[in-house]
Design goal:
Blueprint: H1 4-32, E1 67-70, E2 79-83, H2 85-96, E3 102-106, E4 111-114, E5 117-120, E6 127-131, E7 134-137, E8 151-156, E9 159-164, E10 168-170, E11 194-199, E12 202-212, E13 219-222, E14 225-235, E15 246-249, E16 252-262, E17 268-270, E18 275-284, E19 290-295, E20 301-315, E21 319-325, E22 330-346, E23 348-353, E24 371-384, E25 388-393, E26 400-412, E27 420-424, E28 426-435
Parallel strand pairs: 1-3, 2-4, 3-6, 4-7, 5-8, 6-9, 7-10, 8-11, 9-12, 10-12, 11-13, 12-14, 13-15, 14-16, 15-17, 16-18, 17-19, 18-20, 19-21, 20-22, 21-23, 22-24, 23-25, 24-26, 25-27, 26-28
Signal peptide: 1-31
Subcellular location: Secreted, Cell wall
Catalytic activity: (1,4-alpha-D-galacturonosyl)n+m + H2O = (1,4-alpha-D-galacturonosyl)n + (1,4-alpha-D-galacturonosyl)m
Length: 443
Amino acid sequence: MVSSRKLMKLVFMVPLLAMLFMSSTLEAARASNGTSADGTNHLHSPRVNGSAAAPRGRSLASPSSQSVFSVDRYGARGDGSHDDTQALARAWKAACASPRPAVVLIPGGRLYLLKLVTLHGPCKSSVTLTVKGTLVASPNRADWSDKDRRHWIVFRSVNKLTVNGGGAIDGNGEKWWPHSCKINKALPCKEAPTALSFHYCTNLRVEDLKIVNSQQIHMSVEDCTNVLLARLSITAPGTSPNTDGIHITRSKDVHVTNCKIKTGDDCMSIENGTRNLHVSKVVCGPGHGISIGSLGDNNSRAEVSGIIIDSVQLYGTTNGARIKTYQGGSGYAKDITFQNMVMYDVKNPIIIDQNYCDKATPCGEQRSAVQVSNVVFKNIRGTTITKEAIKMNCSKNVPCQGITLQNINLKMQGGKGDTQSTCENAKWRKFGTVHPQPCTDKS
């Protein structure tokens, strides 16, 4: 016989079990409809033009606990003709506010037309922009005002940013190049946008992207720390003006690897404030080669140090390993190594030029200069289209110091004669076999 106390327990437990069963059933129903316990819809797209609250975006939990914010959910058309700038800005804003790692998705197989857009941090968590389709610049140059003609897509002050996806970023540069003073000398020299700019970013990764036909520079890394640029394809015609591939300035601890760069200007331009840069496995050409500088322009101070350029192939470039500085500058370019380089029909394979001038009027002689010191050219071989394979045109007042030439073999294209080298105001030493015989002028 059941005691009265046990009977009372059963009477209280039955309603409790029923309530628990109903609660779990309700949660399952909400989950199947894409609604969490707090009423947030994670599956359905927001109403962009309706009277609903501001769009929250698609936020699906993945095994890695990432939230995904597709630009399509924020009103992007992806047809290559409608302006998708604000859709990207809204998706970025939502992702940046996410308390957990977020992905802004550019879906594949479509073209998203963008005008100037700046994607700001700091963000609450890490953000990844995954470009599977194509971001294409507006073909209308009037969409850029004189207030800011230097930028197109800008990331500013973001920590733990990744840009990847295997898609493309197309600058529509053919709309801009004919208006360059380098193409039409009758025109005034004006700036044009950089396709992809990173300003004040830390722990930055940019990988597996195609960047094509930028209006001017393809990618600029400025005031950034701890950067990886990997597996990038950067392409523009060899005749396109000022279309540097990767531009780095005022940044430290940067690694560039496994990139193919074909442009109309420097494959890489390494400028003031760059420290601890390691470049490896880069294929370059056409273009102007890999350049440190120009430094010291307009009597400015420049500081560049700790640069290693390793395992690079150059095809038909204007220059190979180059350091260029203006007269009148100050500061230093030091502790620099160019090594394990193969050059095919390069015009100026090894060049230091402390009298560089890229001005409309001649640059006058000045006494000060950026000090160039502790530079190593090691294990460099290939062919050149000019006799002067090694050229060191250094400052009379601030000579180049500590230049090392080691294991160099540079020959004329097709064996047409022999190569030579010239040095002016350079202090150098050689190790191993160096061809051409270094520096007949050893002042």
